[in-house]
């Protein structure tokens, strides 16, 4: 039975990047028996900018709820079909974080610097980024929560990922970066409980303390950094630049759902946003999407070595100066992808954009 992969597309450059993902995934899985079944959500999800034309307050809140409910059900339907992965282009963050709260998501990213490695596990399931809004004239009131159960699940998963990444059992410090001073001491108490129960020393720090330590000492080798969104969202791009040697325009990451109904479903996304101003202009940088396709092919579609193969091909393409404007080149999105596919040994036929090895399907609106 072919592997099942989901595809969710938002406004802005979503349609262009969905095409890039489909093309590259098709080429990478061309030798897989039966190919890959790609299930595309029928809904085009809003970006922040596409919502700007819909008013404000309750009007936007209603559309946000529709997007949230639909995407949650789409993820649940994928999990029920045995899908291991979904690629999602950028959509409105408010909808995303409601889904992440409901399905208990964490974002996982690893950094490799000259002096070692680190693993970032970002708690997307609770805190200020999640929650709901109540609108009254001239006021918006946001209600959110932290829970002992969710905190335990996030920390346990972070330690599980660390063991998978470093199977020799040697890890560095386990650091939690949260604004815990605002929570009446309960997050500190939970961290102490988890330290005792899991047999791991967990260091809970305020974000500014973590920043000072990063500036002064860098990251200790094999640091496990568990972070609330209030800090990690801002610092992700800084960590990429300082410790990962990367720009957000080129990077993809994975969001892992911990809710038992969808556990095992991993959502891949680009780190960059929807770039609505570039939509339809063949200008968006495809590198992060290409890397997402490689990760899905290798980890969920039975194509070992796909990530390394794509990285080598990307390096050759970029070394020749074939890049979009944000990387200093003067090539369009499609031209960069064509050059990459040629490096991967795929003959590029002008006008041909859909590889035959991906069987595309559209999930019904009632999903």
Automatic annotation (TrEMBL):
Residues 4-340 form the Isopropylmalate dehydrogenase-like domain. GO terms for biological process: L-leucine biosynthetic process. Keywords: Amino-acid biosynthesis, Branched-chain amino acid biosynthesis, Leucine biosynthesis, Magnesium, Metal-binding, NAD, Oxidoreductase. Coiled coil: none annotated. One of its GO terms (cellular component) is cytosol. It comes from the Bacteria. It holds the Pfam family Iso_dh. One of its GO terms (molecular function) is metal ion binding. The keyword ATP-binding does not apply. This is Isocitrate dehydrogenase.
